[in-house]
Amino acid sequence: MRARAITTILISAVCIASLFTSASLAYDNVKAHPALNSAAVDAIEKMFNESATRLERLSLSDNLEKLKGPAVTNPGFFEGTTGESEKRFTPKEWIVHGGFSADEPEVPAAVRHFYDPLGLKDGKKYLTNRGTYWEGLYPNPGIDAIEWALGDTPKGSANKWSAAKGKEYFVKAFAEKDEVKREELLAKAWRCLGEVLHNTGDMLCPPHVRNDSHAAPLGLSGGWLLGSPDPYEELFNPSWVKEFAGGAPDPNLAGIIRNSTTIRQINEALANFTNANFFSHQTISGMGVYEIKPANGESAYPSPKLENLEYVDEEFTYYKAFPSGRRIKMCKDRGYFRFRGYPYIDLDCARSQASELVPNFIYAAKKIFELFLPPIEVQITSFDPETGELEGKVSSRKTDEYPDEIVYNGKIDVWFGNKLFKADCEDGEFTIIIPQADRNKKPIHAVLSIGGISYTSSDYEALDRVTLQLVCYPTQELSMPQGISFISEGVIKWQGNSFTIEKETDREYSYEYQRLEVTLSADRKYAKSIDYSDVFVLKWEEAGYNLNSERHLDLHLDDQDGKVMKLKTSGSTKYVEIYLKDLRGVITEFNFIDITRNPIRNDHGTIIGVDEQRIESREIDYSRDPYGGQSPVFRLTFYYGS
Amino acid sequence: MGNKHWLVSIAVAVLVFLACGGEKSTEPDGSQTEPPELKAFTSYATEVLLGGDKDSMLAITDEEYASVIHQDVPDDSVAIAKLGRAIASRKLLYATSLYAEYEVTIDGVKYTVAFAQGGDGEWKLLRY
Questions:
Q1: Which chain B residues have a beta carbon less than 8 Å from that of A344?
Q2: Of A235, A369, A548, B43, which is least surrounded by CB within 10 A?
C-alpha cells in the first residue's frame, strides 16, 4: 500500500512537473516579445542610419560590437530558481534578450506587468483581478507595470533592469576607463532597454491594461489561479510583427509620442490608447444581442462599448474604424447554442487587432530609443593649421531622461580626409596634434564609438568671419527703412557652436557699440539663436547742450528647431537669410529707440533749449517690405578662412 | 488518490522542477500541432458532450465563461451531442501550450470553438 502510494506520488509529480516545462508561444517572452524587440531594433537602425541630419549612427547588429554581460540562461518561477550566466551578445541581441528576460522569474512577472490607466478598481493601477485566487500563492506586490519597467518610483527602484538602471549603466559606461567594466555596463544598459520595450509591448496588449488576469504557463498556479488565458495573447502569432511593423501608427497617438519627453509619457499614452479602444476577452461590455457584462467579474470600462461599434450581420462581427484608416475586428458573437450570444475574440479578430497595435509599438519603440540614448554631442572646437593642434569636446545635452551631465573618458577617432588619428578624451575634452602633411585634408570630423553607437561631430569648418544685415521699417512713424550692418573684425573665437563679438568705436563725432551673439545647432546646419545689440550716437554738443542723436536697437531671434534659420552654402560662405514674412516667426525680442535732439534758439540764434523727439517701437512694421517680398531682409553670413 | 497524496505530489513536482530549472524551448512553435494533453482532453470532452448533459458540459467549461454563457445553453441533449460529434472531427486552427482554437461544422454551418488550460495542465472548454 505504502509502495503504491509512493509510486502514485512520483508518477503524479513527474506529470505535473512536465507541464511546467511546456513551451509557450503567443504574446509571450519566448517568441512574441523578442520578435517585437527585434523588429523595433531594425526600425530604429533604419531611422538613424538613413537619416541625412542625425549625427548618430547605429551598429546594433554588428558582431564586432559584442558585449559580455549577465543573461538569463536558466528561466524559472522565482528569484531563487532563476539562473543567469555570462553571455556575449550584440546590442541587438541584448535588446531582444531583454524582451525575454523581463518575464523572468515568471511568477512575479505574471502579476507585475499590468497597468490600468483608469485605476477602475479603487484607483489601483496594478493587477487586482482574481487577487483572491493568486494572492495565496504569491503576495500582491502592489506595483504597476510602468513603475516597474521604468524604476522611477520607490517600488520600481527594486527592478535592476529598469529604464532608470539602464540610463545609470550608460552614464557609468561613458565615464568608465576600464574597457572590460565598460563593456559589461553597456551590455546591461541594452538589456534594460529590451526589458523596457517588453513593457511597451505589454501596454499594447489589451489584458495588460484592463486589469484582466490571465493564465501564464505556470505549473505552480495550481490550476486557473490567474484565470483563463487571453485569446489576443495566446493567438498572437510572432510572424505578425514582421507583417504589420510597416503600418502607419494611430495619428493622434503618434502626435502624443512625438511630443513626449519621457518614456513614462509614451507608455502611459499607449496604455490609455489600448484601454480605451480594445477589449480583452473578459472585459467585453455594452449592449450586444443582450447586455454584456465583463466575464471576469470586474466593473465595465467606459470604452469601447459594443453599442458604439459597427456590427456586420453576415459576419457576426463588431468592427471599429480607427483614425489610422484601418477597420478592426473587435469581437464576434456567433454561437452554436444561440444564434448570437456572448461575444468573443477569435484568431481572426486577434490578427486584425495586431494590425492596429503592432505599428504603434514600432513607432513608440523608436521614440523610446531616442529618449533612452545618451544625448551626447561631439565637437571639434578649434584647429590651428599652423601648429596642427586640434581641440574638441564631448558634452551632453540635458533632457528629461538625462538631467545630469554625462562625462566621457575614452578614445575618439579624428578624421582628416581618409586619415584616422586616435585621440584620448579625458573628462570630456580631447587634444591632438595633426602632422603637417595631413593638415589640409578634408573633411575634418571626430567620432565617439561606444557600444554600437557612433556619435559624429559635424564637419569642422573654419567659419572665421561674420557679417549681419537687416533692413526694415522699425516703426510706422518712419518713412524710410532703417539698416543694420555688422562686420566682424579678426577671427571668430568659437566656444563650441557659439560665439560673442563686441565692438566699440569711439570717434570724435560718433560712438558705436555693437554686440553679436550667435549659437548654431550642434550639426551647424542652422542658427538656434541670434542676439544683436546696437547703440549709435552722433555726437553734437553746443553751448553746453546735449544735442546727440541716438539709435538703440536690441534684437533677438530664436529658432530652436531650425525651421527658418537654416544655414545655406554658397561658394566660400554659409549664410542664413530670412524674408520679412518669416521674420515675425523667429523674432522674440525687438526694441528700437530713436532719439533726435534739435536746438531751440531765440531770435538771436542763441540756444535756449533742446527739442527732443523720441520714437520707440517694440515691433517691426510688417506691413511694409523694403524689397516688396523679392529679397530677404535679414542676412547673417559666415566666411570660411581668415 | 487522497488529498494528502496530491499535496505531496505537488511538492515533489515543485522540487523536480526546481532541480530542472524550468528550461524552455526557443525552437519555432508548432501552432498547428495539438499537444498530447489537449488531444486527450478533446477525446474526453467528446465523450462528455455525447452524453448530452448540460451540467456535465458546463463542468468541463472554464468557470468564468460558464458563468456568462450558461443562460445561452439550452437543456437540449441532441444539440449538445451534435457539438460532441463535431469536436470529434474538429479542425485545428491554432494551438499554444495554453490555448487552442478549432473550427467545427454542425449541420453544415462552421463555428469556432476554443479550449484552454490555466497553466496546470487541466484543459477545459473555453468557448462554443
A1: 114, 127
A2: B43
Q: How confident is the model at residue A137 (pLDDT cuts 50, 70, 90)?
A: confident
Contacts of A10 in chain B (CB under 8 A): 12
CB contact under 8 A, B16 and A14: yes
All residues of chain B having their beta carbon less than 8 Å from the beta carbon of residue A6 are none
Helices (H), ranges, A214-306: 231-235, 239-244, 251-259, 263-277
Q: Do A75 and B64 touch (CB under 8 A)?
A: no
The pLDDT assigned to A29 comes to 76
SS3 label, residue A301: coil
* Integer Rg of chain B from CA: 17
Rounded to a whole number of angstroms, the distance from the CA of B75 to the nearest CA of chain A is 10
Residue A518, all three cell numbers: 550667435
* Residue type at position A143: I
Q: Mark yes or no for CB contact B101/A347 under 8 Å.
A: yes
pLDDT at B78: 96
Q: Is the pLDDT of residue A207 over 80?
A: yes
The three grid cell numbers given for residue A522, joined into one nine-digit string: 550642434
Interface of A with B in 20-49 (CB under 8 A): 20-26, 30-31
- Written in H, E and C, the secondary structure of A383-447 is EECCCCEEEEEEEECCCCCCCCCCCCCEEEEEEECCEEEEEEEECCEEEEECCHHHCCCCCEEEE
In angstroms, the CA A289 to CA A279 distance is: 17
Helix (H, G, I), strand (E, B) or coil at A612: strand
Contact yes or no for A225/B118 (Cβ under 8 A): yes
Sign of CA dihedral A345, A348, A351, A352: negative
Dihedral pair phi/psi, residue A529, rounded to 5°? -150, 145
How sure is the predictor about A479, in pLDDT bands with cuts at 50, 70 and 90? Answer: confident
DSSP A103-163: T-SHHHHHHHS---TT-TBTTB-S--TTHHHHTTTS------HHHHHH--STTGGG-TTSH
**DSSP letters for B57-80:** HHHTB-HHHHHHHGGGS-S-HHHH
pTM: 0.76
Q: Which of B10, B31, B124 sits opposite A25 (nearest CB)?
A: B31
What number is the ipTM of this complex? 0.75
pLDDT in tens, A23-56: 334 677 777 899 999 999 999 999 999 988 788 9
3-state secondary structure of A382: strand
Is pLDDT at B10 greater than 60 in this prediction? Answer: no
Q: Which residues of A touch B61 (CB under 8 A)?
A: none
Q: Are A357 and A204 in contact (CB under 8 A)?
A: yes
